[in-house]
Design brief:
- The complex is a heterodimer of chains A (about 110) and B (about 110).
- With about 110 residues, chain A is mainly beta.
- Chain A is about 0% helix and about 55% strand.
- In chain A, strands 2, 4, 5, 6, 9, 10 and 11 form a seven-stranded mixed beta sheet that branches. A four-stranded antiparallel beta sheet of chain A has the order 1-3-8-7, with no helix packed on it.
- The termini of chain B are far apart.
- In chain B, strands 1-9-8-3-4 form a five-stranded mixed beta sheet, with no helix packed on it.
- Chain B is globular.
Chain lengths: ~110, ~110
């Protein structure tokens, strides 16, 4: 158990819909990262927040957005869902945001878009 | 951004050492080399990281080439529990705000043969 929690574990929805994935980082961790893992794309970095502020952006679509709240939990919002958005979404957290930091990953949320 | 190249898959016999290679020919002087692994149906977990010198911990050893253009993760005595996808990634200095290198890619799928 990494100490990072993600809800829900599974999500099934239809194309065109909007969903919100939630992540609670380990106690004391200030940085949160979001990743998407699909079968043919590997683990793709989406976005990182540090202490409430956006720190780095990866391959995040404009239909996706995220935020980190004052209590440091984070939400990833996916809108106008397409079949290709079906994937595992992982959240990770770390104490800071520097190059020596260890990321601790949550168990993931499996999103299925029908 | 500097990228890493890993073989798609490798096999090893149980209780034998495993050497997992990673090429990162465009690494910059301040990039740290991190290794993570992802066991089946789990989120990735940290294995080891280093900058220039070889590193050892309870899980593995990291051998870094003198020119830092490649590295090797060494599992000294592979067990069935080590079967996983292993990712080699580079993490840049904190001064690279907004340019954090967090690309995991597809990693190396390690199969352990009993």
């Amino acid at each position: 158990d990494s100490g990072v929690t993600q809800t829900p574990k599974h999500l099934i929805t239809a194309t065109g819909q909007r969903v919100t994935l939630r992540c609670s980082p380990r106690s004391g961790d200030l940085s949160v990262y979001w990743y998407q893992q699909s079968l043919d794309q590997g683990l793709q970095f989406l976005i990182q927040y540090y202490n409430g502020e956006e720190r780095a952006k990866g391959n995040i679509l404009e239909r996706f957005s995220a935020q980190q709240f004052p209590d440091l939990h984070s939400e990833l919002n996916l809108s106008s869902l397409e079949l290709g958005d079906s994937a595992l979404y992982f959240c990770a957290s770390s104490v800071l945001a520097d190059s020596t930091d260890t990321q601790y990953f949550g168990p993931g949320t499996r999103l299925t878009v029908l | 951004d500097a990228k890493t190249t890993q073989p798609n898959s490798m096999e090893s016999n149980e209780e034998e050492p495993v050497h997992l290679p990673c090429n990162h020919s465009t690494i910059s002087g301040t990039d740290y080399i991190h290794w993570y692994r992802q066991l089946p149906s789990q989120g990735p977990e940290y294995v080891i990281h280093g900058l220039t010198s070889n590193v050892n911990n309870r899980m593995a050893s990291l051998a870094i080439a003198e020119d830092r253009k490649s590295s090797t993760l060494i599992l000294h005595r592979a067990t069935l529990r080590d079967a996983a996808v292993y990712y080699c990634i580079l993490r840049g200095a904190i001064s690279n705000f907004g340019n954090e290198k967090l690309t995991f890619g597809t990693g190396t799928r390690l199969t352990i043969i009993p």
